[in-house]
Design brief:
Elements: E1 2-6, H1 15-28, E2 32-34, H2 50-62, E3 66-69, H3 77-88, E4 92-94
Parallel strand pairs: 1-2, 1-3, 3-4
Helix pairs in contact: 2-3
């Protein structure tokens, strides 16, 4: 299963670690982690607007089967939009990495 990671990025300093830890947990459970932080490798944060970044991230979300929302996601405008998109797209939604199923 492909699992998208969502949570607060803007205004936080530890997002790379939080998202990286979540990706590791997803992989440990036998799934594919889709980490929007990896978009920084192709979209320069200095020249990419928030709307452009969210457009690319939403495309990644729609390519997934599920989404994992990290603690504090409710404080993020982007994560709120991703939650709405995940629900509308019929994705499985997880709010705790400990709730992730093991892949068979």
């Amino acid at each position: 299963m492909k699992i998208y990671i969502s949570g607060a990025i803007t205004g936080t300093t530890d997002y790379e670690k939080r998202f990286g830890d979540a990706a590791k947990k997803i992989r440990e459970n036998g799934h594919e982690a889709v980490n929007p932080v990896d978009l920084h490798a192709i979209l320069d944060p200095a020249t990419t607007t928030w709307a452009q970044y969210m457009s690319a991230a939403t495309g990644l979300l729609y390519a997934c089967d599920a989404a994992l929302f990290l603690p504090g996601w409710q404080l993020s405008k982007g994560a709120m939009k991703e939650r709405h998109a995940a629900r509308n797209g019929g994705l499985l939604i997880f709010d705790d990495p400990e709730d992730l199923p093991r892949s068979i």
